[in-house]
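pinned: reference chain
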Amino acid sequence: MKYYKRLKIWKSSNVTFNPETCEAHSYKWWLFVAKVKNKVVFNNYRYSVSTEKHQSKVEWLLAQLGVKIDFYAEFPRGIDRPQSAIDLYKNRIESLQELIDTPRSHEKKNLERKSEQESLKIKIKEIQKLFKL
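pinned: its structure tokens
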């Protein structure tokens, strides 16, 4: 990514990072890095192949600039829509529960699924706390 002094932003094809606001956008609308309550939040939802490349570029840039990412989560509709992350995680919890409830499902695999459910519940609580939902 190249820094543009006049614009005061880092930019590459269809991805920008503003170091003053600590915001990164893909295709000028999809917000995937933002500061929330003084914490740098990184959206690691893989929206598309191109936005995945944008995320990779900005994550590398943040490391080079010494910016620590405080919180990772998947926000399908962007960080500015935190409810989308909660909905995604709730759907995953339900899907895992369906697999657990399947007859003849393996006990060892179900323990892994239950552990993943707990991790997702913690992630939901962190998002709710961070965004006051």
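why pinned: The beta strands are 2-4, 9-12, 15-18, 23-26, 30-36, 39-43, 71-73. The mean pLDDT is 94.
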